[in-house]
């Protein structure tokens, strides 16, 4: 198994290919149980992220709270010109000057 480990604030993150993950799933899950995160890639693209289930969970944090449909009804205003083209000066600030136009 190719083991490319990226140093990160705990936990460590290991990248493996899909065939490697399939062949070594038990060992990978043992590593997850120890606190490691595993990213599985196929054709160079990440397709899955396996991480410990209960690590550092904050039960009442916004990212763990269920979404409540309509909780912002009447509080958010989307202007009529929301989808209008951007002015050239703003649009140009997003473009890479090295890219051909």
UniProtKB/TrEMBL annotation:
- Annotated region Disordered: the residues are 44-71
* InterPro entries the UniProt entry points to: YefM-like_sf
The family database entries (SUPFAM superfamilies) matched by this protein are listed as:
YefM-like (SSF143120)
Superkingdom field: Bacteria
Which family does the record claim for this protein?
Belongs to the phD/YefM antitoxin family.
Q: What is this protein called?
A: Toxin-antitoxin system, antitoxin component, PHD family protein
- Organism of origin is Leptolyngbya boryana NIES-2135
């Amino acid at each position: 198994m190719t083991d490319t480990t990226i140093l990160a604030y705990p936990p460590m993150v290991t990248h493996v290919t899909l065939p490697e993950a399939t062949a070594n799933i038990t060992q990978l899950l043992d590593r997850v149980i120890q606190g490691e995160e595993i990213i599985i890639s196929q054709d160079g693209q990440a397709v899955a992220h396996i991480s410990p289930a209960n690590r550092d969970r904050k039960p009442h944090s916004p990212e763990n709270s269920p979404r409540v449909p309509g909780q912002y009804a009447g509080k958010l205003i989307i202007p009529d010109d929301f989808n209008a083209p951007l002015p050239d000066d703003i649009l140009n600030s997003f473009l890479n000057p090295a890219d051909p136009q």
